[in-house]
Amino acid sequence: MRAMLDVSNEFFNLPEEEKPKFEPKDVLEPVRYGTSFNSAKEKVFCWRDFLKVFVHPEFHCPHKPTALRELLLEYCEKTRNLVRKLVRGISESLGLEEYELVKTLNLDSSLQILIANYYPPCPQPQLALGMPPHSDHGLFTLLIENQVGGLQIQHKGEWFNVNALPNSILVNTGDHLEIFSNGKYKSVLHKAIVNNKNTRISIAMTNGPSLNTIVSPSSKLVENEGCEPAYIPMKYKDYLFSQQNNPLNGKSMLNRVKIQNN
Ligand code: OGA
Ligand code: NI
C-alpha cells in the first residue's frame, strides 16, 4: 500500500511530456490522466489531478514510472480477492446463496479501475473542493491515502471527516451495490476537501460488475422479499458512460435509475 502511494506520487511528479496523452472526451479510455473530473464538461474545476487506469478484466498500465506495472498488478489482484470475500458475505447477508452476486454480475470479468488522486496544497482551501459530493458507480471502492486527511462522508445529512487509521483500507459502498440489493445497502455520498499545507494522495480502486452486465435489483432477492424492484435495469457500461460524461453531482445518476414512488 505504501509503495502504491509512493509510486503514484512519482507519477504525478513526472514531467508533463512523460505522462499519457489525455483526451477529456474519451471517458472510457483505459488510461486517462487529467485535472478535475471531466474538464470538458465543467465550468469550475476541482483542485485535483487524477490518473485512471482500467486494470481488469484487461490489465493496462502507463509506461512510467517503471516500478508501477509490477506493483499495480499485485495490488489489483490482492484488492480483487478482498472484494470477492466481501461480496460473498454481502450476498449471504441478503439471504442469497454465497456466489449469487458473483455469478449474476459476472465478477470473473469485473471492471476494476485504479484511480490515483493528487490534491496539492491550495492557497484558499475554503474556496475550493478536491472532489464534489458524489457516490461511486461500482460495488465497492477500496481507498487508501497518505496521512493527510480530506475525505468526508455524509451520514444522516451531515458531513463527517473520515480520519482513516494508518495503513487501513476504507471500503466505500457504490451505486451498483445499492441497485443489486434493491436499496438494502446504500451507496455512500462522499467528497474530498483540500488544505493549504500538504499534498494529499489517495488511491481508490473501484470494483464493479462486468461492463456488459445489465444490472437490476436481484430477482431472487425481490422474489424472497415479495417486494417490487426499486431501480430500472441498465447496462453497467451505459451507466458508467453517462456518469462520467457529466459533472459529478451527488447521487444524480443513481436517481435517474431509481423508480420514484408517488
Ligand atoms: C474517488 C474519491 C476521494 C478521496 O476517487 O472517487 O471519492 O478521498 N476520492 O480522494
Ligand atoms: Ni468517490
UniProtKB/TrEMBL annotation:
Entries under InterPro entries matching the protein: DIOX_N, IPNS-like_FE2OG_OXY, IPNS-like_sf, Oxoglu/Fe-dep_dioxygenase_dom, Plant_2OG-oxidoreductases
GO molecular function: 2-oxoglutarate-dependent dioxygenase activity; metal ion binding
GO biological process: one example: coumarin biosynthetic process
Pfam families associated with the record: 2OG-FeII_Oxy, DIOX_N
PROSITE patterns, sorted: FE2OG_OXY (PS51471)
Fe2OG dioxygenase domain span: 109-209
Keyword line: Iron, Metal-binding, Oxidoreductase
Superkingdom to which the source organism belongs: Eukaryota
Stated family: Belongs to the iron/ascorbate-dependent oxidoreductase family.
Protein name: DMR6-LIKE OXYGENASE 2-like
